[in-house]
Amino acid sequence: MTQNVLILPGDGIGPEIVTEAVKVLETAKQKFNLNIELDNALVGGAAYDEFGTPLPEVTMQKAEKADAILLGAVGGPKWDELDDRELRPEKGLLGLRSGLELFGNLRPAILYPQLADASSLKPEVVSGLDILIVRELTGGIYFGQPRGIRELENGERQGYNTYVYSESEIRRIAKVAFESAQKRGKKLCSVDKANVLEVTVLWREIMNEVAKDYPDVELSHMYVDNAAMQLVRAPKQFDVMVTGNMFGDILSDAAAMLTGSIGMLPSASLDKNNKGMYEPCHGSAPDIAGQGIANPLATILSAAMMLRYSLNESAAADAIEQAVSNVLDQGLRTADIYSDGMKKVSTAEMGEAVVAALANA
Ligand code: NAD
Ligand code: IPM
Ligand code: MN
């Protein structure tokens, strides 16, 4: 049976890095005889420019039908001043996540040994790092109502958002996290702000309740401010971390840097049936867009996650991850992970090196 993959390049460096990931997917398709078909659509600012909306109906329809989606990144200064916030590129991404109920966001932060020098932390603190951040992706303060900017009686304006989680939303992300921990080091740290916010008092309570179904997993709790500090002090103490939408957004960018660059961090966003959207954790990097220097590896590794989690092609996924490791062994580095003595390469050179390593494996 043919599996359909929807490619959404997006904005900024999105199309540059997705081009390389598609080359890698095409190579994997031939080498492993994969029965996958790729289709394309617009999202974000690119879709706004063409259709006047960041998430056109045709894109949503294709996304609903697809077995998996690979996305680059959205957003950029060109669209930052749009008066109607609903038309911002980021709304296209958020609309896909919530419309497809992709509540389970997996963000693995793994330090390739070859990149120990590129990490912002000392090699002994990060070597061997392999943690997984499980971020709730369709709830919390990102989606809570009411929200907006209102005028107060004294005439000044007030901005407001609402941080809410229902028990069922907490329970379903807890299950994803406990099951992930069961397959790994069996340690789960739930990150909250239960000393201040009631919504996370409930979060903690439900985590404890779900823990009873997973007696082999050791659950701990940590406040988010301490978690941010511990991530840069001694990140290897963690195995799996689970947290809400906004804390997960912030902690995963911090964790990314431990692996050498945000250009190395892939992600999977899954629904309850493991249908998923796959994207690098970074954004559209307007500061380097159009220069051909962005690191495509996070997107290539996201394509590998897609093969593993949604398309059931784990041999092809393993081979892509091995090919990435091989090009790092060859000393090839984009600017963001460059260190002395290595060979600096462009986005396309990096993509082509992964293609060659995969083809020759
Ligand atoms: P960003 O992640 O785009 O960039 C932060 C820094 O990291 C920049 O210096 C950038 O050059 C660098 N960087 C990011 N990806 C890189 C890569 N692959 N290779 C080399 N360097 C890389 O974050 P930002 O600057 O805060 O946001 C820019 C735009 O992207 C905004 O419009 C934001 O809303 C959007 N954004 C989108 C996503 C997404 O689509 N998933 C994620 C984050 C931000
Ligand atoms: C991410 C991004 C998005 C988020 C933005 C662009 C909506 O930062 O995927 O990490 O905050 O989730
Ligand atoms: Mn982010």
UniProtKB/TrEMBL annotation:
Residues the entry annotates as binding substrate: R97, R107, R135, D225
Keywords of this entry: Amino-acid biosynthesis, Branched-chain amino acid biosynthesis, Cytoplasm, Leucine biosynthesis, Magnesium, Manganese, Metal-binding, NAD, Oxidoreductase
Reactions catalysed, as given in the entry: (2R,3S)-3-isopropylmalate + NAD(+) = 4-methyl-2-oxopentanoate + CO2 + NADH
Pathway: Amino-acid biosynthesis; L-leucine biosynthesis; L-leucine from 3-methyl-2-oxobutanoate: step 3/4
Presence of keyword Cytoplasm: yes
Co-factor remark: Binds 1 Mg(2+) or Mn(2+) ion per subunit.
InterPro entries listed in its UniProt record: IsoCit/isopropylmalate_DH_CS (IPR019818), IsoPropMal-DH-like_dom (IPR024084), Isopropylmalate_DH (IPR004429)
Obligatory cofactor(s): Mg(2+); Mn(2+)
Subcellular localization(s) per the UniProt record: Cytoplasm
A single GO molecular function term of this UniProt record: 3-isopropylmalate dehydrogenase activity
Main location: cytoplasm
Feature type site, description Important for catalysis: Y142, K193
Binding site for Mg(2+): D225, D249, D253
Entries under HAMAP family matching the protein: LeuB_type1 (MF_01033)
Subunit structure: Homodimer.
Family, per entry: Belongs to the isocitrate and isopropylmalate dehydrogenases family. LeuB type 1 subfamily.
Protein's name according to its UniProt entry: 3-isopropylmalate dehydrogenase
Protein source organism: Bacterioplanoides pacificum
Gene, per the UniProt record: leuB
